[in-house]
Amino acid sequence: LSMWSPIHLGVSDRGVPVELPLAGAHLLVGGATGSGKSSCLSIIAAHAAKSPDAHLLLIDPNSVQLSPWKHRALAFADDSVADAIEVLALVHDEISRRTRLLAGLPGVVRKVDPTVMAEHGLSWWVLLVDELAYHTSVAGSSKTQAEFALLARDIVARGRAMGITAVMGTQRPTQDVVPRALADLFPLRCAFKVNNASNSDVVLGDGWVKRGWNAAEIDHATPGVGILLADGGKPQRFKAAWVPDNVIAELAVSTIPLRPAPPTTAVAAGDASSDDTPTPTPVPAPTGNAAPNADR
Fold first, then answer.
1. pLDDT tens-digit profile of 172-198?
2. Alpha-carbon torsion 111, 116, 118, 120, what sign?
């Protein structure tokens, strides 16, 4: 697999496969507990883990949904506020490093493409956050919450052209958790069952409820059913694919050898001195099997 390839998310209500290109895009996912939100994130994590051209960077305060992949990841944070901010800062610094790299290339190069990646040893960075609300409105101080939100917004604003994909999920899609200044930066939106129409519009964007796309009307008895809004397109109802826990446990270990080498600190030939970004230390490989995902 490759992050340049579309991700198979599931099937539409017409039985047609739903393929989502995430290269050069970001995805906002919202859904109540048990709606299928975390399963959607697991699908994306599995695709990225099986892609030798992708690094995973994970923030999982619950240490349940994304933690099985932590040994495949370049960086992982659980409920530690400091660690979560450190992961975002790492991504932020990489965006700045790549921006300087492009500025030093001949001609006008506005974004990272397969040629630039191959020539300069870059990999896709896939940032997965589940749960967004924890670090923006629950844990830490108002200062750390603001710092987390500012870094998250900057990553979503500048990351697309730099080979950085951000996928952020929340079971509480309210304006305080996902302010419009952040939500509007996501070209891709996915809403599973939510508690009310307001939550649905926070995820999909203002006005879609009035046009008949209300994720609050999804039946509780149909977990995995969601509404997907692609960049510039019309929403579509779909059923997300399912990755069983035993498959996640196996992939979490078997994909470790596919983890790319950590990024170098050199920006461009003759310009290495201009970059002081530290080289991150990957999470060490486990000696046994990774823990399976306990709560799907």
1. 999 989 988 999 999 999 999 999 999
2. negative
Nearest to 55 by CA among 284, 202, 256: 256
Q: State how far the Cα of 224 lies from the Cα of 68, in Å rounded to an integer.
A: 20
Q: What are the residues facing 68 on neighbouring strands?
A: none
Query: Can you list the pairs that 270-274 forms with residues at least 24 positions away whose Cβ atoms lie under 8 Å?
Result: 271/100, 271/104, 274/100
pTM for this entry = 0.89
Exposure b/e, 137-164, CB count within 10 A at least 16 = b: bebbeeebbebbbebbebbbebbbbbbb
Question: Please, which pLDDT band fits residue 69 given cuts at 50, 70 and 90?
Answer: very high
DSSP string, 246-264: HHHHHHHHHTGGGPPPPPP
User: Which pLDDT tens digit goes with each residue over 238-280?
Assistant: 999 999 999 999 999 999 999 999 886 533 322 333 333 334 4
Q: Please provide residue 104's backbone torsions phi and psi, each rounded to the nearest 5 degrees.
A: -90, -5
The DSSP H or E segment spanning 183 is helix 180-183
Residue 153, phi then psi, degrees to nearest 5:
-65, -40
